[in-house]
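Let us work through a complete example step by step.
Step 1: write down the sequence.
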Amino acid sequence: MKIPTLMPSMFFVAILGLAAVVCAQTPPLPDACPCGRSRNPLFDAALKACESQLGGSPQHPVAFALMAKCMDAKGFKRPPGLPPGPPPGLDNPPPPPPASGS
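Step 2: predict the structure and record it as tokens.
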């Protein structure tokens, strides 16, 4: 049986195309912060307990200072070096830069 002359070149092109697809795929990026919510079930439980103790709800969140105190009491201290107050987000704009004393 004779192999058609076009068959080897088609096979080569197919392998080359598959290799291009595999090489073009990028690996998934790791999360920017491994300390996000839902990472530690103990943290989530303490957060919910503090929120219920202080009477908070999604519509009426508890003040950040009160939550920080409650979480400290439960053993979850805020890491050193972070600025005071809640982290910036959609609801919390970043703090203004310090005013120059000129």
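Step 3: interpret the result. Helices lie at 6-24, 41-53, 64-73.
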